[in-house]
Design a protein that fits this description.
The protein is mainly alpha-helical. It has two domains: 151 residues, Helix Hairpins; 199 residues, no CATH class. Helix content is 68%, strand content 2%. It has 13 helices and two strands, in the order H-H-H-E-H-E-H-H-H-H-H-H-H-H-H. The relative contact order is 0.09. The model has no long low-confidence stretch (mean pLDDT 86).
């Protein structure tokens, strides 16, 4: 009985340490199908999203979904710590004798308490191991607990630093492509710029952003569950918008070269595909068509009104459709998996950008209207 407890405890400890190493330290995607972290997120996120579906108010629903990323990170760390404490308690139980100062009987519950105080290096000394193997195990557990705390202290700042770096470009996209962002709005605001260097520099920034998004989210998959600060923004919407914009330039826009757009499209598509695999997003053969023939005609008109002329070649729509097939199925799968919204190609109605809105707008406008009225009253 004690031997099996020891073996089972060692298996638990090694499994958790391996999972923590792969999640926190290993900077690449793990191909192994069964992982504790994957099981954790496969069972917690769907339940969280299912509750969110019953929240009708968009802002409240986004706030609720925004809690999951940080909270799941804390719960996962707690799960690892609890598992290690339980595993070491099993091994201590199998290794044999301990002494309790009050002379009470040693039970597994007592050893679980002893494992917890050892793991967190409390060192009360009320329960002590009574043989060499048990003492050595206590030292190992204390070292493991100290290392675990050090890794957690280093892990959290890195995750939030990566999150902040991701959100900077998303916030910059607000004034360039609207809120939510669309390809037509982006090209309407920047596509008619007389100096294409401005547009190419923006594409270079997004090329680097896409590469950093790919690297950080593969190293720290929990980042895909972190929501943006505004409910009408997300990393998926930003990535999809840039793929839409670069696709249009690859189809052909009068007066604009597409060399840098091709490079940005390549890395952005790479990020889209790999991140869909990271979270096991499933392909839906019946995913909605974002740009039907009538929508393509409307898109062309919207761009023309902004001074941007899309290629009038006979195969322009067909060429764009082939490019869309390279990333839209993955964008749809990610959106369904993460409860996010894929942006349209052009805005259906004019909306204020996030930078144009303020909770004081109504009061300020009312104050502005009072001024002319007061002057008129004084005049008469």
């Amino acid at each position: 009985m004690h031997i099996w407890a020891t073996i089972f405890g060692i298996v638990i400890i090694l499994a958790i340490l391996l999972d923590a190493f792969e999640t926190i330290v290993l900077p690449r995607k793990v191909q192994r199908s069964f992982r504790l972290t994957s099981v954790f997120y496969r069972n917690t996120w769907p339940s969280w999203a299912r509750v969110a579906r019953h929240i009708r108010r968009t802002s409240l629903r986004e706030s609720f979904l925004g809690y999951f990323g940080p909270l799941s990170l804390i719960l996962l760390l707690g799960l690892w710590a609890s598992g290690l404490i339980f595993g070491f308690a099993l091994v201590q139980f199998g290794l044999g004798e301990h002494v309790q100062l009050a002379g009470e009987k040693i039970t597994f519950g007592t050893l679980l308490y002893h494992s917890g105080e050892t793991f967190f290096t409390l060192g009360y000394g009320d329960v002590t191991p009574n043989n060499g193997a048990a003492r050595a195990l206590a030292v190992m557990e204390s070292g493991t607990g100290f290392a675990f705390l050090a890794v957690v202290i280093g892990y959290l700042p890195v995750v939030y630093s990566s999150f902040s770096a991701r959100e900077i470009e998303i916030s910059l996209l607000d004034a360039r492509a609207g809120s939510p962002p669309t390809a037509a709005e982006f090209l309407g605001r920047l596509g008619c710029c007389p100096d294409q260097t401005v547009l190419d520099n923006i594409f270079r920034d997004w090329e680097r952003w896409s590469a950093e998004l790919l690297a950080s989210n593969i190293s720290y998959p929990v980042l895909v569950f972190f929501r943006s600060q505004h409910s009408n923004q997300s990393w998926l919407a930003a990535l999809t918008t840039m793929l839409d914009v670069t696709s249009l330039l690859m189809v052909g826009v009068d007066g604009l070269h597409n060399e840098q757009a091709k490079l940005t499209f390549a890395i952005a598509r790479h990020a889209m595909v790999d991140l869909a695999q990271v979270i096991n997003a499933r392909y839906d053969p019946h995913y909605p068509n974002r740009l039907k023939s009538e929508d393509f005609t409307q898109l062309r008109k919207a761009l023309a009104q902004a001074g941007v002329t899309l290629s009038d070649a006979d195969n322009a729509e067909e060429k764009l459709a082939k490019l869309r097939l390279l990333y839209e199925p993955y964008a749809d799968a990610l959106a369904r998996r993460l409860f996010l919204t894929v942006p349209p190609w052009y805005p259906s109605e004019h909306k204020k950008d996030n930078w144009q809105g303020s909770p004081w707008d109504r009061a300020i406008q009312a104050r502005a209207l009072e001024g002319p009225r007061r002057v008129a009253d004084e005049h008469f």
